[in-house]
Amino acid sequence: MRDLNCIIVDDEYPAREELKYFIREFSDIEILEEFDSPLEALKYIEKQNVDVIFLDISMPGLDGISLGRIISRFEEKPKIVFITAYREHAIDAFEIDAFDYILKPYSKERIIGLLKKLQKSSAKASGESIEKITLWKDEKIIVLDIGDIYYCEASERNTIVHSKDESYIENTSISDFYKRLPKDRFFRTHRSYIVNLDKIKEIIPWFNNTYNIRLKDDVGEVPVSRSNIKDFRKIMGI
């Protein structure tokens, strides 16, 4: 697994210096550049391969949320960690799938935990399994074990994530949510459904040579569309 790199975008010099100290002291993440201008950072990101962006929100010209929305449309998206003194931007941040949201003044324990989480997340690119995912429930951020997800379903522009006892509504398309899941454990059976392969109890032949999946613990049933039958059979050894 290669080391991560990052840039820091913050118009406050002391805040950049403090963050650089934590990154250098408590991680192997390489600091490529630092910027006090979001526009200059955007120009850099368009030309360079950047893994992580530590991004302040309140900045002149182009604020951090606006820059984050632009970055979120990139085909190869860096992880965005918002760094801010303001709590009220958290919902906006996670709507664009930010990796994390850190409040100033920095807590040493919180920063160290974040750096460890970032380095662990790079295991996904090297084929290692990710174990946690963050979801929204009643305006709170819930950290859920990946293995606790049974299935996901599209609901208009949202994705409903089902565990054994709870459901979580994510303000993102099912296609974008699928990108967050390990493909060795989850399969998109239908344009509107994703299933945790470990939670399959029964596979029932259905009409037109399709299948219906019955999940463990009577959590629900998930269809397999005709267009995905071939790949599903291969994965399941049918």
Structure characterization notes:
- The protein has 238 residues and is α/β, with parallel strands linked by helices.
- The chain is built from 7 helices and 15 strands.
- The strands form 4 sheets. It has a 5-stranded parallel β-sheet with strand order 2-1-3-4-5.
Which terms summarize this structure?
238 residues; alpha/beta; 5-stranded parallel sheet; 5-stranded antiparallel sheet; 27% helix; elongated
What's the SSE blueprint?
Blueprint: E1 5-9, H1 13-26, E2 30-35, H2 38-47, E3 52-56, H3 64-71, E4 79-84, H4 90-95, E5 100-103, H5 108-121, E6 132-137, E7 140-145, E8 151-155, E9 158-162, E10 167-170, H6 174-178, E11 186-190, E12 193-196, E13 200-205, E14 211-215, E15 221-224, H7 229-236
Please sum up the structure shown.
The chain contains seven helices and 15 strands. It has 238 residues and is an alpha/beta fold. Strand 14 (211-215) and strand 15 form a beta hairpin.
